[in-house]
Specification:
Structural class: alpha+beta
CATH topology of one domain: Alpha-Beta Plaits
Radius of gyration: 44 Å
CATH architecture of one domain: 2-Layer Sandwich
GO molecular function: monoatomic ion channel activity
Protein name: Guanylate cyclase domain-containing protein
Shape: rod-shaped
Main location: membrane
Helix content: 40-55%
Number of helices: 30
Largest sheet: 9 strands, mixed
Membrane topology: Multi-pass membrane protein
CATH class of one domain: Alpha Beta
Subcellular location: Membrane
Distance between the termini: 46 Å
Length: about 800
């Protein structure tokens, strides 16, 4: 099952509840409770998935549009176009029944498709293509020999004069009409073009999603033909079909053969022979007539005459019996009491061969006509519109992707330009790029998407997506959404003094720090949310199938989710990397030499405080119709803010809450130190505080690094791919980091042992013993902030724990 599907929750009381299903409650027998307790799914609740059922109309349409049906009908269409000509070219009259049976099968398939489409496809009913398909289907009847001959009053067993005369005339007339109608069947080959387009689109979608390294490409919606493009293609195809059919039917009207037939030697010779009938010399004239036509490409096969005494004489060819010929393969001539029949198989086969060539030619004309007539409109209008629609859908689905798409497009254009320059004129002629209005609109849509993403951030995705997808007026006041995430607050120290001294330069000062903060948080799978002067709110959001709240309001982790396990670990390293960057980046270090700042604050350094906490929050729009901000509201966000403010009390740059610490993997927990347990204002439960020790004394300036968004996103994708495929672990990231090793180098095992003992004594109320241990800590590091804070707090009561001491102190 996939997250987001619907389930019915049925309890033992018989009540049925419809809710959004979490994978965890139905597929995972036991969950990991981050707070330290185990929580199993309720045995009284049964999850019954509700699957979407297609209607009959949807099933029929899916069946008609399936590849199997399309390919089958295309094969039947090809047979309907060429079967009769192939029969004439290579098979005798005795095989006609077999070919007629195949035509009956094709007629059944076309009739079934025509009926189903007429009933279940509203756009097809009484449409242009319906009438063409109907005519093409009905024309198949003419290829069924026994039906066609019966309709014309012909009988293959008849040999009387009247039957032969009717056969000769009717078959030629029928052949002309059926060949004209058969051309309409070519229209069915348009299905092949449509099948090719669908296959090409499907292949493009597969190729887009094949690149796993680019999550933005992979998350793009499937490419589909736009309604404008579909409509324009249909209109163009109709016009091409009408023009081709009109030419095929009208051009014969301008030929003389359409109005009269020139007399042949068969008819003229028979007329002359009739004058010798019942006279001397008739036998000689008859022999001459027979011998003259016997060796022709269209040989005489039968001659009949009746003498004056009423006796009928028949002469037949030894090579061919006219009864073995189709009615379309004979020519009947008569004059008086004389009848002659000729074998026209040479002409019929030549005509069939030309029909095959003509049919292929018309197919090519229809295909090329439909392609080239629509090419310009597709290149200039349809494709740009489809690109715009595609980008709008992407913005609606993932507004954050807009900026990346624009950067990817710019990078692709730069690569193409650089490649063209390397050709030195030897490559294929470069296509001239013109800035059409459609390109301007496409770029504008992307820029608007970029601005929306920058303005609203990740928390505003629902607001942007909902308004883009929905019609009507803009409604920025979207409902809140409860999410679980890790919230980080960071603050620039001495910001008021810095602002007064830098004046207009303070904006660049803040933005240079924000570039580092936002970039590294994005690299380590987070997102920047709020910029409040000297403070930043940063968020790492979990999906619904990764973490969720149980009935006791405890956060439960899905043990099968990789991201739920590695995401907490990378949050801390992002803040450690930010602190390292601030203490080594030349763009930030330059403020240490700013004379105004040094005069006001001697030995000035850019310092920041960080607070981190894990919990739920309401994600949504805050404000009114005049101005809104997309952010997070929750006591847990306030805790993160309070922890950031408390860093000044403990003299550390980073404070981590107990719930977040418990979500770290065991190797990462070793990088943290428990420095106190407090009760925050407005909270009844004690909260453990942790920090990750860092000393930047040995840091040296580094070279200027790439700060572009593409750089950080590339690093983000590499990190995510490696963690998902388990190419490395978060512990590997920490252990391989030279910056983390350098900042932790001054802290010895002895230092941590003394502090741990002092902390345990402090929590248990043995403050005098705690004092002795903490003094040993100060002997190693005399300016350790957490130690000085604990000593200061215990000194208020002369290192004696109060009677009400429960292992935590109140921090207002």
């Amino acid at each position: 099952m996939q997250d987001g599907s619907l389930t019915r929750t049925v309890d033992r009381t018989g009540k049925v509840h419809k809710e959004e299903m979490s994978i965890l409650s139905s597929t995972v027998p036991q969950m990991t409770v981050i707070s330290g307790e185990n929580h199993s799914s309720d045995s009284n609740v049964e999850h019954i998935p509700i699957r979407y059922r297609m209607t009959l109309s949807e099933k029929i349409n899916k069946f008609l549009n399936s590849n199997i049906v399309t390919i089958t009908l295309n094969i039947a269409t090809i047979y309907a176009l060429f079967g009769d000509d192939i029969k004439t070219l290579g098979f005798a009259k005795s095989s006609d029944d077999g070919f007629s049976s195949l035509v009956v099968i094709c007629l059944f398939l076309f009739s079934l498709e025509l009926t189903l489409s007429f009933i279940f496809k509203p756009d097809y009913k009484w449409s242009f293509y319906f009438w063409l398909d109907l005519i093409a289907t009905v024309s198949l009847i003419t290829d069924i020999s026994w039906i066609w001959e019966s309709a014309l009053g012909l009988s293959s067993g008849s040999s009387n004069s009247k039957s032969l005369q009717n056969a000769g005339k009717a078959s030629r007339a029928g052949t002309r009409s059926t060949r004209a109608l058969r051309i309409i069947r070519i229209v069915r080959l348009i299905r092949i073009v449509k099948l090719y387009k669908n296959a090409k689109t499907a292949m493009k979608n597969r190729e887009m999603r094949k690149n796993e390294e680019d999550e933005i490409i992979r998350d793009m919606p499937e490419v589909q033909e736009s309604k404008v493009g579909k409509r324009m293609s249909e209109v163009t195809m109709k016009r091409v079909i009408i023009i081709v059919l009109a030419l095929l039917f009208i051009l014969p009207l301008f030929e003389t053969d359409f109005y009269y037939t020139s007399q042949t030697s068969w008819e003229f010779g028979l007329t002359e022979l009739n004058t010798f009938l019942n006279q001397d010399g008739f036998d000689y004239a008859m022999d001459e007539y027979w011998s003259y036509h016997e060796s022709d490409n269209r040989p005489i096969v039968y001659l009949q005459y009746t003498t004056g005494d009423g006796v009928q004489h028949n002469i037949s060819s030894n090579a061919t019996n006219y009864n073995d010929l189709r009615f379309s393969e004979i020519f009947y001539a008569s004059s008086g009491n004389l009848i002659s029949i000729f074998d026209l198989r040479y002409d019929v086969k030549l005509t069939s061969l030309l029909n095959v060539c003509r049919t292929i030619f018309i197919c090519i004309v229809l295909t090329l006509g439909s392609i080239y007539f629509t090419k310009d409109s597709e290149d200039l209008v349809i494709k740009p519109i489809e690109k715009m629609i595609e980008k709008v859908k992407i913005i609606a689905k993932n507004p954050i992707a807009a900026a990346e798409i624009q950067e990817m497009s710019n990078k692709r254009e730069e690569e193409e330009n650089s490649q063209n320059k390397k050709c030195f004129g030897l490559c294929k002629a470069e296509t001239k790029k013109r800035d059409y209005e459609t390109k301007l609109l496409e770029n504008t849509i992307l820029k608007i998407g970029v601005l929306l993403a920058l303005g609203f951030g990740e928390a505003g995705s629902l607001i942007i997506g909902g308004n883009v997808e929905a019609g009507g007026d803009v409604d920025p006041m979207a409902n809140g959404n409860k999410v679980i995430g890790i919230y980080g607050f960071c603050d620039i120290r001495n910001f008021t003094d810095t602002t007064e001294e830098l004046q207009e330069g303070v904006m660049m000062f803040v933005n240079e720090i924000a570039q580092i903060v936002h970039g590294l948080v994005d690299k380590y799978l987070g997102a920047a949310n709020k910029n409040i002067g000297d403070a930043f709110l940063l968020v790492w959001k979990f999906q619904k199938d990764e973490l969720f709240l149980n009935e006791e309001d405890k956060i439960v982790r899905n043990p099968s989710s990789k991201r739920a396990h590695y995401l907490p670990d990378v949050t801390m390293i992002s803040f450690l990397k930010i602190m390292a960057k601030v203490n080594k980046d030349p763009a930030i270090l330059k403020y240490r030499t700013n004379q105004k700042l040094l005069q006001r604050m001697p030995n000035y350094e850019v310092k920041m405080g960080f607070g981190m906490h894990l919990g739920w929050a309401i994600e949504g729009a805050i404000g009114s119709q005049f101005k809104i901000d997309a952010s997070y509201l929750s006591p847990n966000v306030n805790v993160a803010s309070a922890l950031e403010g408390s860093t000044k009390i403990y003299g550390v740059p980073l404070l981590i809450s107990g719930p977040l610490y418990e979500s770290f993997s065991e190797p990462i927990q070793r990088y943290c130190r428990h420095i106190d347990t407090i009760v925050l204002k407005g909270n009844a439960k004690p909260l453990k505080l942790y920090t990750s020790d860092c000393d930047f004394t040995d840091f040296t300036p580094s070279r200027s690094a790439d700060r572009s968004k593409m750089y950080f996103r590339k690093k983000r994708r590499t990190l995510k791919k490696g963690l998902e495929k388990q190419e490395f672990t978060t512990a590997d990231i920490y252990s391989r980091s030279k910056e983390i090793a350098l900042m932790r180098k001054p802290y010895t095992r002895e230092f941590f042992d003394f502090f741990s003992k002092g902390m345990n004594n402090y929590l248990s109320g043995m403050w005098q013993m705690s004092k002795n241990q903490l003094e040993k800590v100060l002997a190693i590091r005399n300016r350790d902030g957490p130690t000085l804070s604990l000593m200061s707090f215990m000194s208020e009561t002369a290192y004696r724990a109060p009677a009400h001491w429960k292992g935590s102190r109140y921090l207002g």
